[in-house]
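Predict the holo structure. Ligand: inosinic acid.
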Amino acid sequence: MPAVTIVGMQWGDEGKGKITDLLASEAEMVVRYQGGNNAGHTVVVNDEEFKLHLIPSGILYKDVVCVLGNGVVINPRVLLEEMEGLTKRGIDLSNLRISDRAQVIMPYHPVLDRLEEEARTAWRIGTTGKGIGPAYVDKYSRYDAIRFVDFIDEDYFRERLKEVVEVKNRVLKKVYNHPGFDCEEIFEEYREYAKALRPLVTDTSLLVYDAIKAGRKVLLEGAQGTLLDIDHGTFPFVSSSNPTAGGASAGTGVGPTMIEQVAGVIKAYTTRVGEGPFPTELSGDEAKCLREGRGREYGVTTGRPRRCGWFDAVIARYAARINGVTSIIITKLDVLDEFDTIKICTGYKYRGEILRDFPASLRILAECEPVFEEVPGWKQDITGIRDYDALPTEAKRYLERLAELTGAPISLVSVGWEREDTIVKTPIW
Ligand code: IMP
């Protein structure tokens, strides 16, 4: 059963968009399984750049069916804007589908996201402000959530909206001194969105199941990354869903036994946006070199500069285990082209002891000092290389050390932004 889950092994921004787009050239279906428009996937094709937030990265291929699964939280306004932007650029969207069980992000969700962050005094999560957390809170509290199946049922939606807005307004007014929302205004705006999106809404778990059963190649595309996972990430500095491989089954509605491989995407160094501890974080010239150079380490969704640091093998090993990774895809290797030497964190030193496993406690993590080994750089431009054996010896040694420390074999290596800037060591399909 040729279904492959693509997961991020760090704090998101590993380059999953490019990899999904690349693998989608041979796939028949790409399914997003969690998150929402907090994600930002950059895909570059023939010098043309596409920034996708909600729509799966397979959309650039005419025949690939692209699905927003039940685990996704969808802002219909943002989705329609993204669709319009792609249509204007000549992209065919006739194969886009939305799960009838996906959650709708309502106008009060981003407002609550901002107000909740502002109200925090001790620390802030540093969310993207897109309303993702509040939408998942409503999903799990159940009463206030609106799913697509309810959203496109106009009479039912109107009824539900009245009840929900009343509750939200009570909180907004009493807790946050916010004027609240007009239910009719939301209804008028959202009924137009519902009309536009209704033809795309279906039972996508059935679509995905049928495709996998028929032996078609299906990619399950994770957004964010392992350390932003609500259960396994650096809690509470995480997102509100399960980007890890376990989330792929719940967020698409196909059983875990139907998913054959888990490809873990991991950058040749580490980045993070938002708050929270980051053991291998760099400052000064080395951080600048990673951020400002070819790495272009700025958030696709928020434009915030990403914090940058060396490769952390404790994280890599942890992510390989949590996700049951079957192979790793190392991205942005070319960003290290100019370094004389490169450091790899192999363990954490905590109060005189060496930790080899990623700790749950952020207080411990914040006190951990990375233990580094230093390896020589290759000091040459590798962006044009397409054959693994043609890589400089130092680059191959670096990659092999990362694979050894992670405990998983390498399938692909990405050496540039463009689709074809990729080395296939072992094919995924
Ligand atoms: P939220 O998902 O907007 O609630 O943000 C929670 C945390 O996840 C913040 O630290 C965000 O910066 C981070 N985050 C959310 N989505 C992404 C992503 O796609 N890439 C990197 N970080 C993300």
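The chain has a mean pLDDT of 95. The radius of gyration is 22 Å.
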